[in-house]
Amino acid sequence: MNHTYIIGEIGQNHNGSVDIAKLIVDMVSRPIREEFFGLKLPGIDAVKLTKRDLKQELSSTQMNAPYDSPNSFGKTYGEHRAYLELSDEEHFEVFKYAKEKGLDFVETLTAPGAMSVLKLFTPDYLKVASRDLTNLPLLEALAETKLPIILSTGMGGKKELDEALEVITRYHDKISILHCVSQYPTHPKNVNYNTIPYLIKNYPQYTIGYSDHTIGILAPSIAVALGAKIIEKHVTIDRRMKGTDHAVSLGPDGVNRMIRDIRLTEMGMGEEDIFIVDDIKSAQVKLERSIASKRPIKAGEIITEKDIHMLSPGDGIKWRDRHLVIGKRAIKDIPKDEIIYKHLIE
Fold first, then answer.
1. At what angle do helices 136-143 and 158-168 cross, to 10 degrees?
2. Does 32 share its domain with 177?
3. Is residue 273 included in any domain, yes or no?
4. According to the model, what pLDDT value does residue 234 have?
5. Residues 261 and 319 occupy one common structural domain
């Protein structure tokens, strides 16, 4: 990748509607509106859907439990979950639509039964949700496909991550690891950005990123500044819509601003060094200071340190080179508060 890979997570924000899913694809596929310094910044790279197999999702007790919530789409939690599921064919329809828009497609598969979608299409990445980091049978089934896998660590530590990697690497090493905190929304005190450099240091063979559940757009840019190469963020066409994830998602303007800030952050990272960039040289000449006359100096006079001070512009002799001025003779009269250029002394 030559820029941060940004995934717009649709998840279940389609509310069970292919048309809404396509509207979200439309929203994130539009180029961002702002241009900076004549540069057109890259937009979002991929969208992500989640596929569940309700036969392999919840216990019978959970499936039949009443779900009395403003965000509920059914009387029981099972009915709610069923309402939000798209069929394999509908996932394929959204996949094709995303591809037409030039986007990659990421699929979160939460059970072996959900892998039936792979008979219809091949996603660019398979995503493992945080809750399935310890679901080793699922990880093995996904790894057997040899498709690149993105792991979220929101419910695991190093032990759980290493166990997951041990299973997947029996089949391949095309793995990305996303720092994540499975709190919706994530409280600022729990974000722990420093996990990102920790993962980069301890897992250098993998691509490291960040899956964000905070409110707003600050966290992704900080993650990029710390070295994240993938950013995942929930997106929606309207944060006020019914559903559990809309409120912690970004709407159209938020998506635009997040992409802008990520692209500007990565553009500004530069290299680990200190140096003068070419684009500031005109300002350097205008604003830096050079050795100047502190008093009127007559032609033939010898210049002493008491006769000089520093004034702008910066196109003359610097203080570190004052030996080129002190003890020299003025060739012509030099008025007070004028730069002492080399051609004025001998």
1. 40
2. yes
3. no
4. 95
5. no
Q: For residue 344, what are its two tokens? A: 């004025």
Burial of 187 (0-12, 13-18, 19+ CB in 10 A): exposed
Residues 303, 218: one domain? Answer: no
Backbone angles phi, psi at 266, to 5 degrees: -65, -35
Q: Cβ(219)–Cβ(190) under 8 Å?
A: no
**How crowded is residue 147: how many other Cβ atoms within 10 Å of its Cβ?**
17
Is the pLDDT confidence value at 61 over 90?
Answer: yes
| Distance, CA of 151 to CA of 41 (rounded, Å) | 27
Q: Which helix (H) or strand (E) holds 216?
A: none
Residue 195 has pLDDT above 70, yes or no: yes
d(CA 89, CA 107): 14
Kindly report the backbone phi and psi dihedral angles of residue 244, in degrees, each rounded to the nearest multiple of 5, phi listed first: -75, -25
Q: How many CB atoms lie within 10 A of CB 305?
A: 11
Asked if the structure places residue 232 within a domain, the reply is: yes
CATH assignment at residue 94: 3.20.20.70
* Res 172 pLDDT > 60: yes
Q: Which of 135, 131, 105, 133 is nearest to 120 (CA)?
A: 105
Which pLDDT score is estimated for 280? 86
| C-alpha gyration radius of the chain | 30
Domain assignment of residue 173, given as a range? 5-268
Find the CATH number of the domain harbouring 318.
3.90.1210.10
Residue 1, pLDDT > 70, answer: no
Domains in the chain: how many in total?
2
Per-residue pLDDT reduced to its tens digit, 204-261: 999 999 999 999 999 999 999 999 999 999 999 999 888 888 888 999 999 999 999 9
Question: Pick the residue with more confidence: 33 or 265?
Answer: 265
Contact between residue 303 and residue 297 where contact means Cβ atoms under 8 Å apart: yes
254-291 confidence digits (pLDDT tens): 999 999 999 999 988 988 899 888 888 889 889 999 99
